[in-house]
Write a structure and sequence with these properties.
- The protein is 35% helix and 24% strand.
- The chain has 20 helices and 23 strands.
- The strands form seven sheets. Strands 2, 3, 4, 5, 10, 18 and 19 form a seven-stranded mixed sheet that branches. Strands 12-11-23-22-21 form a five-stranded antiparallel sheet, sandwiched between helices.
- The radius of gyration is 34 Å and the shape is elongated.
Length: 571
């Protein structure tokens, strides 16, 4: 009996020993690679080295101003398991951070005793962190974090855009140059002890991080600030739906300022309920621009010899084309008048006369040569092209209305580029916002100026400029638009706004205004618009003073000497 039991026990022991051998064979031979990998994983450290996002900056005389940068701080969290006194903890957090922390929400998170990690606040400053740590609270967790910060707040927000919660640039230059700004993350590998300490001899850098490039833009902060102030003032004064403007060097296409209101603060983008506010109307919205088109129509007619400044036409106050009547703004005729009066009195019938004089084909070819119907290429995503499909029609009336800026729609930046050809001697330039890009390796890529395209003879541009100077000197705001000491060329436009839901036009208007100076050696081109103003009829009444304020500021700010000093010498 005893022998049988011993025999059975021996078999059990042998079986267990055999199983152990099989297990060892399985682990050490069959599963060798698996367990080696697990062991390596426990002692190997693999980390991503986060690249720092580049900045968006401007050169401001003798200093550099940041419009977009990256700030560092801490995320504040709690471990409810270890939290001692929730009431005291809440008060310390609130006093140190000065943040609007909901007590009910905090207490709810603090009550989750099975949850070891609850986020309380982001973007904690160094001072706030030190104050919280000084309270010697249990269960407090700090983790380093970075976030995008816009020191200028809402200034130039439509140009700059913002970085979303996922770290990707949204809108403006943040989106256009997202890849260049983001940089390339690095990779670090090393060995660590069971306690988590990194072994010095095991350090290994597989790839160093490459910080994002810094983008230097053409905007002048002083000019941008003044432009935003004057368009915001005009919008408020006339209870308009929106307002905007562009200031550019017409010789090079360098944009000194571009703004539209209403705008937003990119630091607070998540609080905006209407995402439409993030779009830039200067590059993404189409408008029928009205009478600011007339100087371009006149330039085309002069350029091909279809008319000259001495040409006259008989103005009856209206003209019938394709059975449709086109009238002047006041429906009145002026009789026989010279070309200057077309601009001075903004006569629709005069623009139609010029279009007919050169013919539809010639008129259409000049509209295309002015760049209408295609993007300018300015460095902003989502730029749209103007809608000039009516110039493909066989109906003469479509060309007639286009001659004075109705029936075709373009963006403010398109109009700015086209009109600048009058200010620079007849060339179509390429607007740009980026001056240079400084790469992480220290190399610099400067803006490469594109060759402008000649769209009219230099003499044509000078002739139209001379007529526009006369308009400012004699007619603009009854002579009040003149700038003492300076020759300035300018023209207004008051365009009917098309109805959205059906054909025809509403009883609301778009006011536009462009001007440049000094007229015969222009340093600045200004374009302004006011959408749906109330209580005022014409752009000459709403935008003359904003334009005067802007161009006088520019003359003073850049210390441009008067080109008519004799006017200033008068008693």
């Amino acid at each position: 009996m005893i022998i049988k039991r011993l025999t059975r026990l021996s078999f059990v022991v042998l079986a267990l020993f055999g199983l152990m051998l099989l297990r060892l064979f399985w682990v050490q031979i069959i599963q060798n690679n698996y367990y080696k990998a697990r062991a390596a994983g426990q002692r190997t450290l693999h980390e991503t080295l986060q690249a720092r996002r580049g900045e968006i900056l401007v050169h401001e005389k003798d200093q550099t101003i940041s419009f977009a940068t990256t700030k560092t701080g801490w995320l504040l969290a709690i471990n409810p398991k270890l939290l001692g006194d929730p009431e005291k903890t809440y008060e310390v957090f609130k006093n140190a951070t000065h943040a609007d922390i909901s007590k009910d929400e905090f207490m709810q998170k603090a009550s989750k005793k099975q949850d070891p990690y609850e986020v309380i606040l982001h973007r904690i400053s160094r001072d706030a962190k030190s104050e919280i740590e000084a309270a010697n609270l249990n269960g407090i967790i700090f983790e380093p974090e970075e976030w995008r910060f816009y020191p200028a707040g809402g200034l130039a927000s439509h140009l700059i855009g913002f970085v979303g919660a996922d770290g990707t640039g949204q809108y403006g230059l943040e989106r256009t140059y997202n890849k260049a700004l983001t940089g390339v993350n690095g990779v670090f590998e090393g060995e660590k002890t069971l306690g988590g300490q990194i072994l010095a001899f095991g350090k290994s850098l597989l790839r160093e991080e490459q910080n994002g490039n810094n983008i230097f833009i053409t905007i002048d902060a002083g000019v941008q600030t003044h432009l935003e102030q004057i368009i915001a003032g005009a919008m408020k004064e006339y209870n308009a739906a929106s307002a905007g403007g562009i200031v550019m060097d017409p010789r090079t296409g360098k944009i000194l300022a571009m703004a539209s209101v209403p705008s937003f603060d990119p630091n607070l983008y998540s609080k905006e309920k209407n995402i439409g506010i993030f779009q830039n109307p200067n590059t993404e919205s189409l408008f029928e621009m009205g009478s600011v088109m007339k100087p371009l129509t006149m330039a085309a007619a002069f350029d091909v010899g279809a008319a000259t400044p001495e040409t006259t036409y008989f103005d009856e106050g209206n003209v019938v084309i394709d059975k449709q009547t086109i009238s002047n703004y006041d429906r009145k005729g002026r009789g026989r008048i010279p070309m200057y009066e077309i601009l001075a009195q903004s006569l629709n019938t005069g623009a139609v006369f010029l279009m007919n004089a050169m013919g539809k084909d010639v008129f259409r070819s000049y509209m295309y040569s002015y760049g209408f119907g295609k993007p300018t290429g300015v460095e902003l995503n989502n730029e749209v092209a103007g809608n000039i499909k009516n110039l493909e029609s066989t109906r003469t009336v479509e060309y007639a209305t286009a001659s004075f800026g109705q029936g075709i729609a373009v963006t403010p930046i398109e109009m700015t580029r086209a009109l600048s050809s009058l200010a620079n001697g007849g060339n179509l330039i390429h607007p740009y916002l980026v001056e240079e890009i400084r790469n992480g390796d220290g190399s610099v890529v400067k803006h490469e100026e594109k060759t402008p395209e000649r769209v009219m003879k230099e003499e044509t541009a000078k002739t139209v400029t001379r007529l526009l100077v006369e308009v400012v000197d004699k007619k603009l705001a009854n002579g009040k638009g003149k700038i003492p000491g300076y020759s300035v060329a300018a023209k207004t436009g008051t365009a009917q706004i098309a109805q959205e839901d059906r054909r025809g036009y509403s009883d609301e208007f778009l006011h536009t205004f462009f001007g440049y100076g000094p007229a015969y050696d222009s340093k600045f081109f200004i374009y302004l618009y006011l959408e749906k103003p109330h209580g005022i009829r014409f752009a000459s009444e709403s935008l003359t003073e904003p334009f005067r304020s802007m161009i006088r500021f520019l003359f003073s700010y850049y210390e441009i000497p008067p080109d008519r000093p004799q006017e200033l010498a008068r008693p």
